[in-house]
Amino acid sequence: MLTIAHRRAIDRVRSETAAAERELRSAVPPPAAVDEVAERVEASLEAEQVRRCLDGLTELQRESITLAYYSGYSYPQVAALLHVALGTVKTRIRGGLIRLRDCLGVNT
Hints:
Structural class: mainly alpha
Number of strands: 0
Helix content: over 70%
């Protein structure tokens, strides 16, 4: 009889604890809704600014950066595609990235 009473008391405590935890979880407000429209507009404006800055690069810089960063080619692959030395590609990309950084106003 004591064992049955003891186990029922434990079950009651566990039940009360679980109910309290459920109540706490339901009382927590849901995460703030993300303003998807604002994020899309911001991303669109940033993309437009990048396009504008890319247009300000020399054709050689733009071509090298586009192949490396937008097409996913490695620097040696870009060099092979453009039929130039690897060092030339590195110089073009570095110069182009510096000009992009300055155009976009990014602080280093």
